[in-house]
Design goal:
- This protein is globular.
- It has 182 residues and is α+β, with helices and mostly antiparallel strands.
- The relative contact order is 0.12.
- The N and C termini lie far apart (62 Å).
- The chain is built from five helices and eight strands, in the order H-E-E-H-H-H-E-E-E-E-H-E-E.
């Protein structure tokens, strides 16, 4: 009985995804049916702008707390809440559906979907965007270039930097556990 109900529910959800119908979940910056909440949207824009201009997640968190800017849960900001905002494609107006799935109806274990087990569905320009696609793409590139947990940082335009005095191309250096390399 439990398995039958679970399978029927999953099939209904997947059919809605195929038709482009998203399952609504509360998102900071939006109200029900993706209506922009302008005061929260300004905070989201500020977070993306600061990260794009080189501020770390911890520096952004400190700035938001210092200026008493409310978090999504009206508590102190956390790195997790900032990562969730910076990685969420919904701020561009797009929706990716079936990002995760439940493996077992008894344990309810949820696994991230890489697209090999179940298809993912993307709806472009599903709703009004808070940030432009270009800025989101830059921030995502910066995420992949930062190796979290290490001291190695690579900026997205590091190979296009030139010395303002002599005009030579600057070489990017990497820090590997106590030693600098090029």
């Amino acid at each position: 009985e439990s398995r039958s109900i679970s399978e029927n529910t999953k099939m209904g959800i997947r059919m809605r995804y195929q038709m482009g119908q998203d399952h609504w979940a509360p998102i900071f910056g939006y109200r029900k049916d993706y209506v922009i909440e302008e005061s929260e949207a300004e905070i989201v824009r500020k977070i993306f702008d600061m990260y794009e201009h080189g501020y770390s997640v911890r520096e952004i968190m400190a700035y938001l707390d210092k200026n008493n800017i409310p978090s999504p849960r009206n508590s102190k900001w956390s790195t997790t809440s900032l990562f969730n905002i910076l990685k969420n494609e919904k701020y561009t107006g797009d929706v990716v559906m079936q990002k995760s799935y439940t493996t077992d109806h008894l344990t309810h274990k949820v696994v991230r979907n890489d697209g090999t087990v179940l298809p993912t569905y993307t709806v472009i320009d599903h709703h009004a965007a808070i940030i432009p696609h270009e800025q989101f793409d830059i921030v995502q590139r910066m995420f992949t270039m930062h190796r979290f947990g290490s001291e190695t940082v690579q900026l997205p335009f590091g190979d296009r930097l030139f010395c303002p005095y002599c005009g030579k191309k600057l070489k990017q250096r990497y820090y590997h556990g106590g030693a600098w390399s090029q």
